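Severity: low
Component: inverse-folding endpoint
Summary: output formatting inconsistent between runs
Steps to reproduce: submit the following structure tokens with default settings.
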């Protein structure tokens, strides 16, 4: 079992920055892939960024160069640093984890989910 709790969402103007945090607990074998996903109203959940236990990172093209995913093992926290935010980044952001080391940006592949944190970007 893995427990995930997101924080750090809020409202910013376009061009601003936010850092999301996901505190995690549970078996390390259950979270070899961890990622951030988002869902805007009326849209499907999409993968934003993934951090694998082997050190590899994956980003969806729309956030590459603006967002950075990182993990602080000592603090048991996964982060998503978001810079140059745009209105199209507005969504509920979710943290997810899965035991499989080779997960990517497909949300259906992830077993464990947090409750989400809202990010709103105004023009």
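Observed output (run 2 of 3):
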């Amino acid at each position: 079992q893995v427990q995930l709790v997101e924080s750090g969402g809020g409202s910013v103007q376009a061009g601003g920055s936010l850092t999301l945090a996901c505190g995690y607990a549970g078996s390390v074998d259950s979270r070899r892939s961890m990622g951030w996903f988002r869902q805007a109203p009326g849209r499907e959940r999409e993968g934003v960024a993934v951090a694998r236990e082997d050190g590899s990172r994956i980003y969806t093209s729309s956030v590459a160069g603006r967002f950075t995913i990182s993990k602080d093992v000592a603090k048991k926290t996964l982060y998503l640093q978001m810079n140059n935010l745009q209105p199209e980044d507005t969504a509920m952001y979710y943290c997810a984890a899965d035991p499989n080391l080779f997960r990517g940006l497909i949300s259906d592949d992830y077993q464990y989910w947090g409750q989400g944190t809202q990010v709103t970007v105004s023009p």
